[in-house]
Write a structure and sequence with these properties.
This protein has 389 residues and is of the alpha/beta class. The protein contains 16 helices and 13 strands. Helix 1 (15-23) links the parallel strand 1 (5-10) and strand 2. The chain is globular. InterPro entries: NAD(P)-bd_dom_sf, PRISE-like_Rossmann-fold.
Length: 389
Amino acid sequence: MSQNKQALVFGASGITGWAIAKEALTYPSPTTFTRVVGLTSRPLNVEESGLPQDSRLRLHAGLDLSKDAKSTIAYLRAIPDIESTTHVYFAAYVHLGWGASDSDSQVRENVQFVTSAVTAIEAVCPKLEFFTFSTGGKWYGFEFGDKVKRVTPLKESAPRIPPPFGDHIFYYQQIDALEDLNRGKKWKFADIRPDAIVGFVPNHNAMNIAEPIALYCALWKSFESSVEIPFPGTTETYITLHSDVSQDVVARMHIFASLHPDTTGGEAFNVADADMSSSWEAVWPGITSYFGLRGVGPSPDGKLAGEPWVRSKSAKWEQWMQENKVKDKVLDSTCWGFMTIVANDYATFDRTFDLSKARSIGFDERADHVQSYHTAFDRMRDAKIIPAS
């Protein structure tokens, strides 16, 4: 493995890519990478990103993997010293919705993303050693709920979800494409699989559960006299187990895997905050305490909570955003539907992950799940996504 390592992060403004760009500056040590290059689709400078002010970090906008490999090659070649890249972290994707809706387009576009990226990387990065790839709970068919069978705790060796549901899981075809592209090559790759990721992004992200929860709590604090804030799901989903994870832990898993190619090459690894799964009942009170609220179970039938309650206050959104000096249109842009799905459809079944494979190779990073939310909320306050107090 080379001594001078350069990290290249695809999707550096997303919930996983942002964290990888941040963690690569210090994990496992401040000298691991000589340079960290983050690629984004939309313009984003380091000052606005919330990332550390570090001379080794560079962000480059204009990434468009929907174009052919030639376009991606030209884009990468315009980046100074791109040929020194040794480690690539791929956290870019197209999200068109959950389930089977328009899945043919979603599968096709996401396969195009990884194919274009790898083809371009091989053309311009001759020192490539390792490529990590982000999958997740979709691999286990979470978007199809109880329509598919699964055995918990979920292991990486679990068989793929068969057709017809498996046909809609774009991760399968992406990994197949990645394996084909990797065949006979010196570089190696690993698949990193988190459940729902708790974290911060400088712009909005459809897969960020912490942001709608934070804004739900902030709005409740402003508009309701009661400090008791109901869980935005059902009695059933309040007690079901899941294995969510901090974006920082996910990022470290990506980096750890890339630095241990002999044990991780060609493998998949689950990642979560803790070995034991948890329930919303166990963490909701702690999550909401950040806002001086007391998290309680789901509302009685007929009483608004969660996304319906938030939308019932939409006439007051503009004034609230101005008074609290948060980012313009933050309430309009937040993916409220993801909170609803994660607290409802995604929580009707056990989502416990088995972490023994990651532990067996020496990855022992853990996080207190409530603190993971509080860390994300701190970052949101700094970015003026939620009120300062």
